[in-house]
Amino acid sequence: MIELDLSKKSILITGALGAIAEHIVRTLTSAGAFLILTDIRPESEALSILDQWNISPANRIYRQLDVTDGAAVDSLVAEMMQRYPNLDTVLGHAGGCGLHPFLETPQVDFDRIFTFNYLAQTYLARSVLTQWRNRSVPGHLIFTSSYVAQVPHTRIPAYATAKAALECLVKCLALECAPIGIRVNAVAPGNVAAGSSLKVFEEDTEYREFVLRVSPAGRRNSPEAIANAFLFLCSSLATEINGQTLSVDLGVSIPKIG
Description:
CATH topology: Rossmann fold
Strand content: 5-15%
Number of strands: 7
CATH class: Alpha Beta
Distance between the termini: 39 Å
Strand order of the largest sheet: 3-2-1-4-5-6-7
Number of helices: 8
Structural class: alpha/beta
Shape: globular
Largest sheet: 7 strands, parallel
Helix content: 40-55%
Order of helices and strands: EHEHEHEHEHEHHHE
């Protein structure tokens, strides 16, 4: 078994209190990383959750953050970069949605979902990449995408198009920032048996049939597999990976005919 050591790393994570994030947080702290955790939830609620996860206060701090507030993102990133000079890895994990067919979704809701899943990621990227450039830090920005960026679904068009745009952004930023030693990548999970995805899978027959139909393996991803992908990308084993989306989806995104 390969054991990866992240004990010299400080890693910032947005959307750090979700169901998949729990496994990412557990995995990265087990590897020795110090985590700067952010989410929309109030601090009192967040600390209770982190205590339930048995994440030691010695291994993390928490800051409440609305990722759709660009000014708040700028402020937090600047503070954390100043406080933790070894902060060279950031995970843009915040995102998500429910079912929202295009013709049944008001424009304001479509815009809100797209902003949360794409535009907010550009706010994070601009803040983080600017700080790293100014500080000459060879950083690594890693986003969470989704298999629906490649496998469209009629009931989540704002989310799917946001993730498709995000994967293109990863390539654009990787090309722009490579000359200054900064890398940008993404992880694209399949349908994960955790959180809101699990809830919709269990409650919506049409969605469940779609998920099982598009999966060559006929099953969903485990959240542990997604966490391991982030562990790999955060480690020294991935130092020459740039501009890529690592699909952890049991083959769902493989183009199929018939």
